[in-house]
Write a structure and sequence with these properties.
Layout (H helix, E strand, L loop, with lengths): L2 H18 L1 H33 L4 H50 L2 H5 L1 H17 L3 H30 L7 H7 L1 H34 L2 H14 L2 H10 L2 H12 L2 H38 L5 H30 L1 H18 L10 E8 L9 E8 L4 E6 L5 H8 L7 E6 L2 E2 L5 H5 L2 E4 L10 H6 L6 H10 L3 H5 L22 H15 L3 E5 L7 H14 L4 E6 L10 E6 L2 E6 L1 H6 L4 H13 L1
Parallel strand pairs: 3-8, 3-9, 6-7, 7-8
Antiparallel strand pairs: 1-2, 1-4, 4-5, 9-10
Helix pairs in contact: 1-2, 1-14, 2-3, 2-6, 2-13, 3-14, 5-9, 5-14, 6-13, 8-12, 8-13, 12-13, 18-20
The protein binds adenosine-5'-diphosphate.
The site of adenosine-5'-diphosphate has 13 residues, from helix 15.
């Protein structure tokens, strides 16, 4: 990747961090800026105080300098403390805010993308890199802090060192002329640059090599993640007891913790490059002290300036090294930012549509659907009109394409070819959120969250209590609700709240149903949420839903034909196609048809 491309990605990363938590960036900036300025305050005032003392300035004036220095240090320390504490608070919330961000991205991503195994893999990679080494956004934050400090420090040190080269020794002697000569200064600069280059080189090699060693560790972190998530699983404990699986895992852990390779390598890198760096810095300091000392001796500037120039140059060197190292890290980190960029770009495309639509006839025109991982069409040439206010049944054997059809209907999937339109508007041009607003769906594998019953029904912290009660009542949950300790404020499941109450699968289905009732959308879909119930209970629930939604368009999905015989129209799916449609009586009269044979096959269970 070209440097300009890399820089674009880095800037994108910073914009993202700013979007997730702008205040975090602000406090880090403040802390880094203050950290950069602080050493120079000390250098400047020490130099000034020494000068005042050596020139015999009055005690009062010297004290004034001391007091200003102390006051400035206190002020800066105070700001640094506050900014530090604030940024720590934001840091502690950073992971959660990132989760919130990814939730939002996932919500805005086409559902089919979210299911795409490649994108799942990318998501896992982003997570495991983030957890293992902070690669990605965390690294950008760290680099930002170091680079900002380095940039400010370098700028101030340059200003503070100018005098070192501009001020000339009092001429008169041959040696003073030599000190003032361009050759003397040039030789000093060359020596310094050589030492600094060696120091920067050795530090960055040390850093890179160390990182290469650490990079082998994500493997062990992946192991850690795997162990953590699985050891807590009771199924694991069950088989673990019977088969002593832990032996395998323990060996795997020993491999990482006992391997002297890592420890030895890291130690060697430290010793080798640390020594080179120390030697280069030592020689550099020797030249620096000599040069500045000689100039003081020949009265090019005062004794106090010695402190200023030596201090400023030291700052310059260490910050230039940091600048070099962290810029390198930032460039290496681009690969991880690229992953995040690719992942997020899936959400952006979905958000670009903002068309609206009003309800009416839904039309499928020559719709085909093929899953990305599949090599065959799961839905084939589906072509039909679904009229407002009617009750439809979607029936067929397992795997015949009912759920896929429903997901196309409610906008979760887009057709591979063909068009789904509502009231004449192509659904693919409509804002997904506006389209989802039109549907109340109870999926086969619906999900509830560990929050209060009321929040689960209203999907909002702010609920209309009356409507919540009425929805729960219609869904047949009233009796269970009356036994709940805090009514609709009772939290379901215990994962999140220890006072939570466990509920059965059937009760969960009723809450999910109440959620659909509460939403009060014009189209209602029940995608076999009753699959685990017996046929009689399913029929009861379906007819209850039918009664309470007399004015709505309702789709009942089932592989049990008896549950849906009351519907205005039954769509019979077979192998991805609609092979028959019509009322129960009409379909049953078509002897030898799919419906006829399914009905007869199932009838024995209902007698
Ligand atoms: P039904 O709801 O009638 O049981 P589905 O619509 O769930 O049928 O599935 C239709 C076909 O599509 C099945 O063969 C199923 O294996 C396949 N299928 C369902 N989901 C996926 C998926 N995410 N990826 C690949 N194939 C899928």
């Amino acid at each position: 990747m070209k440097l300009s491309e890399k820089i674009k990605k880095i800037l994108w990363g910073y914009r993202l961090i700013f979007r997730i938590d702008g205040k975090y960036m602000f406090y880090i900036s403040l802390k880094s800026a203050v950290s950069a300025v602080m050493p120079f305050v000390l250098i400047y005032f020490s130099s000034a105080i020494v000068d005042r003392i050596s020139t015999g300035t009055s005690f009062g004036v010297v004290m004034r300098y001391v007091i200003v220095l102390l006051a400035a240090e206190m002020l800066l320390n105070g700001i640094k403390e506050i900014a530090g504490a604030r940024s720590e608070i934001h840091q502690s919330q950073w992971q959660l805010k990132q989760e919130q961000f990814y939730c939002d991205i996932n919500n805005r991503m086409p559902y089919a993308d979210l299911e795409d195994p490649e994108l799942q893999l990318l998501k896992n990679r982003i997570r495991s890199n983030q957890n293992a080494t902070g690669a990605g956004l965390d690294t950008q934050i760290t680099c930002y802090s170091f680079l900002l400090t380095a940039f400010i420090s370098i700028t101030i040190s340059i200003f503070m060192t100018v005098g070192l080269f501009v001020n000339m020794a009092e001429s008169g002697s041959q040696s003073a002329d030599l000190v003032n000569s361009g050759t003397f200064t040039a030789a000093f600069i060359v020596f310094m640059l050589v030492c600094i280059s060696i120091s920067v080189w050795s530090s960055s090699v040390k850093f890179r090599k160390e990182n290469e060693e650490w990079r082998t560790l994500p493997e062990s972190n992946r192991l850690l993640h795997y162990i953590r998530s699985n050891l807590s699983n009771n199924l694991w404990a069950m088989d673990g007891r019977i088969y002593k699986w832990d032996n395998v895992v323990m060996d795997e852990i020993y491999k990482y913790t006992r391997d002297p390779k890592y420890i030895g390598n890291i130690y060697r890198i430290h010793r080798r490059y640390g020594t080179i760096n120390m030697a280069a810095m030592g020689v550099m300091r020797f030249f620096l002290y000599m040069f500045v000392g000689i100039k003081v001796y020949y009265k090019a500037f005062s004794v106090g300036k010695f402190i200023q120039y030596v201090g400023a140059v030291e700052q310059l060197v260490s910050n230039a090294t940091n600048m070099f190292i962290y810029f390198g890290i930032l460039l290496n980190n681009v690969a991880y930012i690229e992953d995040i960029y690719t992942y997020c770009s899936h959400a952006e495309t979905a958000a670009a549509k903002d068309g609206d639509v009003s309800e009416g006839t839904i039309r499928f025109s020559n719709v085909y659907y093929r899953y990305r991982t599949s090599d065959r069409d799961v839905l084939k040439n589906v072509d039909l009109e679904l009229k407002e206010g009617r009750k439809y049944a979607i029936v067929g054997e397992n795997g015949s394409g009912k759920t896929t059809f429903v997901k196309l209907l409610c906008g979760l999937y887009k057709p591979t070819s063909g068009i789904v339109s509502m009231n004449g508007t192509d659904v693919s041009t409509v804002s997904p959120t506006r389209y989802y607003d039109k549907f109340s769906v109870v999926f086969q594998d619906f999900s509830l969250v560990s929050a209060s019953v009321g929040e689960n029904v209203a999907c909002d912290m702010d609920q209309d209590r009356e409507r919540v009660y009425s929805a729960l009542d219609k869904a047949g949950f009233s009796e269970r609700l009356s036994k709940m300790s805090k009514g609709t404020d009772t939290v379901i499941y215990r994962e999140y709240d220890e006072t939570g109450e466990e509920i059965s699968g059937g009760e969960a289905q009723k809450i999910a149903l109440a959620r659909a009732v509460y939403k009060d959308s014009p189209y209602v879909i029940l995608d076999e949420p009753t699959a685990s119930l017996d046929p009689v209970s399913e029929e009861e629930i379906y007819s209850r839903v039918n009664e309470m939604n007399s004015d709505k368009t309702v789709f009942f999905v089932s592989h049990r034909l008896s549950s849906c015989k009351f519907c205005d129209e039954i769509l019979v799916f077979d192998n991805g196609s609609i092979v028959q449609r019509g009322s129960h009586e009409k379909l049953l009269s078509e002897k030898g048809s799919k419906y006829f044979s399914l009905w007869n096959a199932q009838a024995q269970y209902y007698v």
